[in-house]
Fold:
Amino acid sequence: MSQAPAPLLRLPPRVAVWRVAWPMVLLGWVRALYLIADTWWVGHLGTAELTALGVASFGWWILDQLSELAGTGVHSLSARREGEGRRDAVGEVLAHGALVALVLWGVAIAGGQVLVPHYLDAMGVIDPVVRHHTTSFLTAATLAWVGLFAQGIVSAVFRGLGHSRAALTIAALGFVVNAALDPVLIWGRFGVPGMGVAGAAWATGIAAFLSACVGLVVLAKDGIVPRMPSVDRATLADIVKIGAPISMTGIAFSGVYVVLGSLIVRFGETNMGALGLGHRLESFVYLASTGFAVAAATLVGQNLGAKDAEGARRSVEITARNCTVFMVVGGLIAFVFADTLVASFTPDPVVRAAAAVYLRVQATIWVGMGFEMVYEGAFAGAGYTTPPMWIIGVLTAARVPLAWALAVGLDMGVVGVWVAVALSTLAKGLLLRFWWARGTWATRAGLPVPTG
Structure:
């Protein structure tokens, strides 16, 4: 007897895309607010602290991508089980994802103790005050990251099931907790000594852990409980195989920025503060675009589980169109109001000016960023993450010689670095769109290439 289609697959594709996407777009904004809240409080500690947060942002991104290794695999497998009508197997996927996440957290703690000084050297940071604050933040981040690992895999299950509104509600709860903890842990309140920039890391980690606990309670009410009667090596291997290429690409992204850091600080260490501020403001569109990526991944996974390649193709096409509109509007707003957006985060006029230029340059190619996110998500949903790994990895690495050519060869200064970043982002989005259209993701799933 055949299983009934998953709830999302009973809807018209346009409706299904929005059912998943809009709560995840809002969830992206919630995640951005985490970063903005941290930046606001740290920025008012001083320019050195804000610069340290910018320097640390790529180490933070490495941790984030380690958590995505487990999360991407759990998301894809949860969506596939839902599409197959096997929700009873999702609890096992969650448990195996938790095991992968715990191992990765141990790796992060061990690696962080050894690598942070080398990371600072590679970035070309020599100011002892900035080095101290950066070390303090990254040390706290590796310890507190267990909360982000937990939140990542729990959220991945909600995304795989298409329960994006529940994921949004739980993330919003986490933001409230994070916003409340920031002034207490960063500045010191109610008898709690201020921890400076390290307090931002602890606030985010604690809030994420509480969010994960609430998420587990909600999943349990839906009959999904982490369970592992025995360790299934095949499930572990699938999680790692699906998640590793995208995770390694993200880590390589950070490695490229570490190399670029030595070029950026050549034009003044405060440029790292400007870059960090620019990244956190840019996160409003970047993290919101992950909502469209989640929609693509979830619907591709569920459609392939139901053996419907045409449904997967149609869903991704609709998602890409909607994301394009969103990114164009966001880019126009950022370009016009860049000075106003950066003004409240730091009193330093040099940092403000550099951050505004960064934001304007990137805003011109946010459509390419949207394509990158949607098609990376689509490949992840298909469990075929090798093409994004190569496309994103190679073009991100190309930022280094391009940045040197523009910044030094053409004497554009730090603006040349910003332009190199923008051009590579646009190229990644366009090439991923082309590669998806080839349809190899369908043939790997044993289905004909859709021709609609």
Notes: Residues 7-442 form one domain. The chain has a mean pLDDT of 83. Residues 47-83 form the longest helix (37 residues).
